[in-house]
Write a structure and sequence with these properties.
Helices cover 38% and strands 19% of the residues. It is of the alpha/beta class and 846 residues long. The protein folds into five domains: 165 residues, 3-Layer(aba) Sandwich (Rossmann fold); 204 residues, Rossmann fold; 103 residues, ANL, C-terminal domain (GMP Synthetase, Chain A, domain 3), CATH 3.30.300.30; 67 residues, Non-ribosomal Peptide Synthetase Peptidyl Carrier Protein, Chain A (Orthogonal Bundle); 225 residues, 3-Layer(aba) Sandwich (Glycerol-3-phosphate (1)-acyltransferase), CATH 3.40.1130. The strands form six sheets. The protein has a 13-stranded mixed β-sheet with strand order 2-1-10-9-11-12-13-14-15-21-20-17-16, with helices on both faces. A hairpin with a 2-residue loop joins β1 and β2. α27 crosses α29. The chain starts with 8 loop residues before the first helix and ends with a helix.
């Protein structure tokens, strides 16, 4: 994306739309991945602008954006820009009362929000999930925007959700363009090389409500016609899978996620028993060439995918240990420094020419000086000049244009900046020495038993002393020894003499995963005053359970029983487990999770969060074109004739599938292990030839890895059966106990690749000919796949099963197909399961 200078973001948007049918966004929707092209986002943005105009909004009015990263969010953002409406992004996790205060502060005329959020008072709202449908009636050609200039407001970003009076930084078109233009010139130099690896894909884990997230989610990717991948999970294991599955090139994340991914790789090495070998390779690679490192750690590169090559970290300083780890493995680590008031960028590391620990050289067009106290002062067009509070616009910078950042840094002889901490966080000891918490935190993080930490200054006899607040890596780590080891890395005046282990599984955090220091300080003060525990917060476990269960739970209910006292359903448990894994970035064993009875036991399980290897395997080779061709040849030459010779089925309701192209989710009652032999001929060829079938995961696991108690012949025969059942029926595991969420995710991948899915929701074959209740999980799967569900009923098979015969007169076995069902996004999973069971039973009675 090169060309003449940009006057406003309207010029940039025209270049954005010129990328046409290139994929702009890949986003997670339940168990599916959806794609948005640049052309589709541009067309939707034009329609949004028409919609805003039809609602009476004009240039200078405001609109709130409150939802997760998505193509709809970006289209709404651009639509506001086209109409001259000022966008006010809100964190998806922002409390409703704070959003309402911001709404009043800016006098918002409309709110774009996700369905999980409540309406904001009487302000008109547009659900992001149905944005396309809402604006479909408007024209999509380029919208005739009002006259805009570089000084016009683009957005107001509120940087805090804890103050009584919200304060928003005013960002103009010129602020954004001051960062875009030099990047565009630099990227143009390398554009010819990009063709070799096109398309680039950025996995962006930073909220679009932050300028850092916007830079890497909206403004930089279109310069390369690149795609941005938005995931819905922050678990390291899920991120690893997403990087590989989506062929991601660059991960965009805050430092905590970069560290979490490092721990995930280390856990995998430890689980495989190769940690000692890994440490030896790591030491040898210190002075090796980049390509040599890449080859030495090729197994890890294979795990993350061959296209993945770089990390972009921002929002806070990346610990040197994490930066060294990934560089040593042969990855590029790009670190920037900036803040909301500077529209993200002040300095940036070059991906191929950077120094360890540096936050980069000063960005083009930005003036930076460091005063006598080491504080960074910034001046330039990228610096916001105002903020809004109490309905008034206030100046941000000093009269001479310099903005005091409050950050401390040093600059080396090559012009590189090195972050030293926040000025307001400096701890001044009784001896008059300045202690920077970041130095102490760095020493603590070097200790393998410390998962994360925060160092605060606490009052002692009228002066300040450092106090370390620790999150431990497992229960076997000794905090005393870890603090002593850290002190050996520090000067005597920096020694940590007071510390405590944080009593909850994680710190309370902002949406960008920064620890919320006021809440942590409150917990430290309570502990020092002899009161147990940390402050109750929205991040506490009981509060999370309350939100999922939809009922109030006292924060002190540690002994409350999850089922009898809190009445958590099986679906509630699934949602709770997923939320806990994402929040605390651990993998929880589903079998152990099902054993948990009380809130206290649940907390212990989180603290002992582990990384376990599932016994269920989800191979992709059965979906390969060669395996599919082999399967169809065997079916039409052998299985199809055999079915009609033995018990030719009579099919009813095939006309219900006219006009349905798929993919679809087929649900049926379960009579025998050979039910699929009658389902396949009942389906039209377009469904039959691309059908994947869920099979009991535990049975598949026993076939793949036979028990040592079997005979030698059986141990040989079982893997052969496993190979044949995958080859001939394209089955995948659907476990009854542990791993079903991964199975559902695999089903989503299948649907994304245009495969139809067959599931038997009863979970077992019938013992008496009667249908047993459907498992609740089918409701969750149907809702998250968001495809038509085809109910089917098999009749006449049970008497064959009871008589132990497989031959019957033609028409004895009947297959009834019902009309496909589509479910609304807000329907509850349990109700969906009940509806499906009722529809299948109705086919029996009909």
């Amino acid at each position: 994306m090169s060309g003449p200078p940009l006057e406003t973001l309207l010029d940039f948007f025209r270049s954005y739309a010129a990328n046409g049918e290139e994929v702009a966004v890949r986003q997670s929707r339940g168990y599916r991945m959806k794609s948005w092209t640049y052309a589709r986002i541009a067309a939707t943005a034009n329609r949004v602008a028409h919609e805003l105009s039809a609602r009476g909004l004009v240039k200078g009015d405001t609109a709130l954006l409150w939802g997760p990263n998505s193509g709809e969010w970006i289209a709404a953002f651009w639509g506001c820009m086209l109409e001259g409406v000022v966008a006010v992004p809100m964190d998806d996790s922002a409390p409703t009362d704070f959003v309402c205060r911001v709404c009043r502060e800016v006098n918002a005329k409309v709110v774009f929000h996700s369905r999980i959020h409540k309406d904001v008072g009487s302000v008109p709202s547009i659900p992001l999930e149905s944005l396309c449908e809402q604006v479909l009636g408007h024209d999509s050609p380029p919208y005739r925007s009002p006259q805009l200039s570089r000084n016009d407001m683009l957005e107001i970003i509120f940087t805090s959700g804890t103050t009584a009076e919200p304060r928003g930084v005013v960002i103009t078109h010129g602020n954004i363009l001051a960062n875009i233009e030099p990047l565009r010139r630099e990227i143009t130099k390398y554009s010819r090389y990009e063709k070799l690896v096109h398309p680039l894909r950025f996995l962006n884990l930073v909220p679009l409500s932050h300028v850092f997230g916007q830079m890497l989610g909206i403004f930089i990717p279109p310069m390369l016609a690149a795609a941005v991948v938005f995931g819905d999970s922050l678990k390291p294991s899920d991120v690893v899978r997403a990087i590989r599955r989506e062929r991601v090139s660059v991960l965009v994340a805050v430092p905590r996620f970069v560290e979490s991914l490092q721990r995930e790789i280390e856990r995998q090495e430890e689980h495989q028993g190769t940690m000692d070998t890994f440490h030896r390779k790591f030491a040898i690679a210190e002075n090796e060439h980049f390509l040599r490192r890449w080859w030495r750690f090729r197994r890890i590169h294979s795990t993350l995918g061959w296209k993945f090559w770089a990390f972009i970290s921002g929002g806070a300083a990346l610990p040197e240990r994490a930066e060294t780890f990934w560089r040593r493995l042969g990855y590029a680590v790009i670190q920037g420094y900036g803040m909301t008031e500077t529209t993200s960028l002040i300095s940036l590391n070059h991906p191929f020419r950077s120094a360890s620990g540096s936050i980069g050289r000063v960005f083009h067009g930005v003036d930076v000086r460091i005063d006598e106290n080491g504080e960074v002062l910034v001046r330039g067009e990228n610096v916001a000049v105002a903020y809004q509070q109490n309905g008034r616009i206030h100046s941000l910078a000093e009269t001479d244009g310099w903005l005091r950042t409050g950050d401390l840094a040093e600059r080396d002889e090559n012009g590189r900046l090195f972050f030293k901490g926040r000025r307001k966080n400096v701890i001044v000891t009784p001896a008059g020495m300045n202690i920077y918490p970041e130095d102490l935190e760095k020493a603590l993080r070097l200790q393998r038993g410390v998962r994360d930490c925060v160092v605060l200054g606490v009052e002692r006899d009228g002066n300040a002393e450092p106090c370390a607040v620790l999150l431990m890596n497992g229960n076997d780590s000794d905090p005393v020894k870890l603090v002593e080891a850290a002190n050996r890395e520090l000067a005597e005046y920096q020694h940590i003499r007071e510390w405590l282990v944080w009593p909850e599984p994680d710190f309370p955090r902002t949406p960008t995963q920064k620890p919320v220091l006021p809440r942590i300080r409150q917990g430290v003060e309570k502990a020092r005053n002899g009161r147990n525990g940390a402050p109750a917060s929205q991040d506490a476990l009981p509060a999370l359970i309350s939100r999922i269960a939809g009922r109030s739970i006292p924060l002190s209910s540690k002994d409350a029983h999850l089922e009898t006292d809190l009445q958590l359903s099986s679906i509630d448990r699934v949602e709770l487990m997923s939320a806990l894994e994402q929040r605390h970035q651990v993998d929880l064993d589903e079998v152990e999770f099902q054993k948990v009875a009380t809130v206290a036991q649940l907390e212990k399980l989180i603290e002992a969060g582990n990384s376990f290897e599932s016994r269920h395997v989800y191979p992709s080779w059965p979906q390969h074109w060669f395996a599919s061709a082999f399967r169809q040849a065997v079916y039409y030459l052998l299985a199809w004739p055999a079915t009609y010779l033995l018990a030719a089925p009579r099919v009813h309701g095939r006309e219900n599938l006219k006009g349905i192209e798929g993919p679809v989710l087929v649900v049926s009652n379960h009579v025998t292990y050979l039910d699929i032999a009658w389902i396949l001929p009942a389906l039209p060829a377009r469904f039959r030839n691309r059908l994947a079938t869920a099979m009991g995961g535990e049975r598949l696991a026993r076939m793949r890895q036979p028990s040592s108690g079997l005979s030698v012949f059986e141990r040989i025969l079982e893997p052969v059966r496993y190979f044949l059942v995958l080859s001939l029926f394209n089955v995948f595991p659907l476990p009854q106990q542990s791993g079903f969420r991964k199975s559902f995710a695999f089903a989503g991948d299948l649907v994304d690749h245009k495969w139809n899915v067959l599931v038997f929701p009863e979970g077992k074959t019938t013992d008496d000919g009667q249908m047993v209740p459907f498992r609740a999980g089918i409701g969750l799967l149907a809702k998250q796949l968001n495809i038509p569900v085809v109910p089917m009923y098999l009749e006449g098979l049970f008497d064959l099963k009871a008589d132990k015969r497989i031959v019957a007169r033609p028409g004895h076995v009947q297959v009834r197909i019902g009309a496909p069902i589509c479910f609304a996004a807000d329907e509850h999973e349990n109700e969906i399961a009940r509806q499906l069971q009722r529809r299948v039973l109705e086919l029996h009675s009909g």
